[in-house]
Every structure is written in C-alpha cells, then in structure tokens.
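Reply to dn_fold:

You asked what the input looked like. This is it:
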Amino acid sequence: MDLQYLRYFVEVAEQGSFSRSAEKLHISQPALSKAIKNMEEELGVVLFNRSTRHLQLTDDGDVFLRYARAMLAMSRDLQSSLNEGKQLKRGNISFGLPPVIGASLFPAIIADFRRTYPRVRLQLLEEGGKVVEQQIREAKLDLGAVVLPVDESLFDAFPLAKERLSLIVHADHPLARERLVRLSELREEPFILFKEGFSLYDRVRDSCIREGFEPDIVFESSQWDFIGEMVGAGLGIAFLPPTVAKKLDPENVSVIAETDPPIAWDLAIIWSRQHYLSHASRAWLQHIREWNEKTDCRMS
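and this is what came back:
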C-alpha cells in the first residue's frame, strides 16, 4: 500500500473532515475522497462512517488508524536511519588486519578515525593476509590490509606503503655488522617465520626457493614481537618490515636493511569488486587515503 495514501487517511482521521484535510494536504477534495475510497476497496472494509453529520471512524477504521500511524512512524525512522548512515552519524565496518601491519601503521589512523566518527563502530579481525582475502571474498569482511599482489579480478586495491623486508639476526650473529646480506648466505640458518596463512610466510619462503634452497623453518608465530624475542634469544633469524623492526631491542638483535635480492613488502587496502561497500566503509577508506597523504607514510 502506498505510504502517501496512509498519510491521507491519518490526516482525514485527525481532522474529521475531507475539506480541511484536502486544504492541509494541498490536493483537491474529490481527489482525496477518491484516494480514501480506493483504500477501502483495496482493504475490503469501510474506514469512515459518512452517514453522520461529522465524519467518524468505523471500528475497522479505528484499528487501521493505529497501524497506519505505526507504519508511518517506521517509515520516518527508516529514512532517518538511512540519512544518518549517509551522514556517518553511525555505521559498522569490519576490517581485516594482519598483526604485523596493524602494529606498524594503524593505531594512530584508527584513533583519528574514531575522533572524527565516534558513533561508527570499527570491528577488527586480526588474521593473516590469506584469511583476510578469503573473508572479503565471502563478504564476512568489508575491507582489509594485505600484502600485494592480489587477484585484481576479485579485488580493488589502494596502495598504502612500499617497503623491503629487513633481516633480523641476533646481536652476536656473524652477519650482525653487515650492511647487505645475500639470501644465499642464509641457506644453513634456522628461520623464524610468521605462520602459514600470513603473506610474509610465502614471501620469505618463495624468495629463498628462488635462490635455490628451502628455508629451515624452526618456529612459526603470529606475533611480530614474539618473533623478535626468539631472534634475540638466539633461536634463529627472521624477516620483518622496517617499521616493525625498528621497535625491537637493539641490544638483543641487529637489523640489516638490505638483502640481495630484496624481498618486497607492498601494502594495500583491498575490498571486493563484487560486494557493496557501505557509506561507513567508504569513509574509512577515504580516511586512510587522506591520512596516507597527510603523513606521507608511503615509502619507497
């Protein structure tokens, strides 16, 4: 049923007069009378008792009035909620964030976004890049931060940062004072990597394989700080982004910025090409873009 007809009915019921209602609604009285008659025919009931001097609601009309008011109120609430979403007075965002990426770039961005949009709820899922991609494909996440490349037929992407992974060794390691290390020199070293499902696992392993050896992976973890502690304990070597590596204790570990060949770590925000992106999610994406430009966090 047309909401406009409900408005006509409620107005007539409240005014008790077709003429006064038509004047207030800015339509002709015959048009208003016809609209009410059409409603009665559609419903199969009589809404007004027209036989008395004053227009009165029938019992069915009285019942219908309660529901008509409720439906109009729901319609106003719906429109208000939609408008709030457009104006970002409220909203929900689900965002996938691998721990190593979150630790290096996102706390300050999230804090600034919360100050700008305090009623928008940002729900974080900490998982490896592969899991983030899968959950975006399945519409369980709106957006995510991952390491490039990704399948461009499935995802749109906004490049965020361009880095090269740093080699992390114990402070007393024979390579600790080197400025550049060839990957082939690491053939006999024990590796501490992020767990399978994290893009860094594949990135480091694939780079080693291209240099002719399978890395000896002795430990895996999902936490960059724990990986740093294990290297500091002399349990192996690791690769971490420089923005994370600089947080490690220099008394326990040595950070070697250059390897040959380098292992790229190019970050991007991705979202599905097939799924709808909400107003809140678009605002979050735009906020990250503006933050990226403002702070010049893009690296080469």
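The first helix runs from residue 3 to 15.
Hope that clears it up.
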